[in-house]
Amino acid sequence: MRRSRSGPLPDWRRPSRRPPALAxxxxxxxxxxxxxxxxxxxxxxxxxxxxxxxxxxxxxQAFARNGHFAGTDDRRAAALRQALGDRSVRAxxxxxxxxxxxxxxxxxxxxxxxxxxxILVGYSDATSLxxxxxxxxxxxxxxGPMVATDFPRLAAVDRVSLLGALRGERPPPIRxxxxxxxxxxxxxxxxxxxxxxxxxxxxxxxxxxxxxxVFLEDVNxxxxxxxxxxxxxxxxxxxxxxxxxxxxxxSNCGTRRELLGVLRERTADLGIPVAVGLPSGHGRGKxxxxxxxxxxxxxxxxxxxxxxxxxxxxxxxxx
Length: 319
Fold this sequence. Notes:
There is one protein chain. The radius of gyration is 18 Å and the shape is globular. The strands form 2 sheets. The chain has an 8-stranded mixed sheet. The protein has helices at residues 39-50, 73-85, 105-114, 127-136, 156-167, 194-199, 223-235, 256-267; strands at 27-31, 55-58, 89-94, 119-122, 141-143, 174-175, 178-181, 184-193, 212-217, 244-248, 274-278, 289-291, 294-298, 303-306. The chain is of the alpha/beta class. Helix 2 runs parallel beside helix 3 (105-114), helix 3 (105-114) crosses helix 4 (127-136) and helix 7 packs parallel to helix 8.
C-alpha cells in the first residue's frame, strides 16, 4: 500500500470495508458464540427470519451446551470459522448474548482478518466481535437483533430497519430521547454494549474512539456501576477523543433521575454533543445501526442520521 508523506491514515479516516448487500434467497448462517439459548427459541427465531425471504441455516453448534456456554470455546470458534469460510453464506446472525464471545477472539482473529467482510449482526456480548471486526479490521458490522433473543417477537418497525440496513437503503433519522448537551457533529459511528467495551480495555482488542460518534448502551446496571465504567473510559482518555456520544435506552439502570444524573455528570466537561435514547440493542427498540459508517448526531433535534450505506452493491466471490 502506498503511503502519503504524512504516514498512513488514522483508522477513523480509512474507507470502511462494506460487506455485499443481502438479497432475497441469500443464505444466513446462525451461530451461538456466547451463552446457550433454548432450542425452541432458536428454531422459532430462525423460522421468523426465514419468513423475511432468506434461506436460514442454523449450524448444529447453536444447540450445543457446555456449562452456560453454547459449546466449548473451540466448538464455538469452529462454527464462526465455518460460517466465514462458506462462500454460500452471505450473513452471520447470532443467537443471543450472555458471555463468551470475547474468549473466541484469540482463536478467530486471524480468520476474521483473512476473510472478506460478511454481514455480522448482533449486540450485547457480540460487541466484542463487532468491536474487533469494525475497530481493528475496518468492517462495517451491524448492531441489530438476535435470533433467539429478538426474532421470536420482532416489531414491524425493527424488521423494516434491519432489512433496510442489510439491503443498503438509507433510513430516516432515528429519534432519540433526551439531550444532555446540544450540538451537531458528523463522524463514523462506533460502539455497543458499555460493559463489554470496558472489559476490552487493556487488551489487544480495545479500539481507539478518536473522532467517532460513540454509541454506548447497556441494561440492568446500577447507576454506580455506570459511573464506574464511564470513569474507567474517561481515565483511559478515550471519551475525550470522541466527537459525540449517544447512549441507548439504558433499560433498568436506576430511576430516570439517577440515570440521567450519572450520564450528565460523567460527560458534561467533554464539550461534545451528548444524547440518550437510541433504540438499539437492549431495551424495547431493536433498530439496526451499521457500525463504521458516517453518521450525523444532532442533539438539538434529538436525531441520529446514518449518512451512508453499510453494504456494497457488488457480490464478492468470497462472500
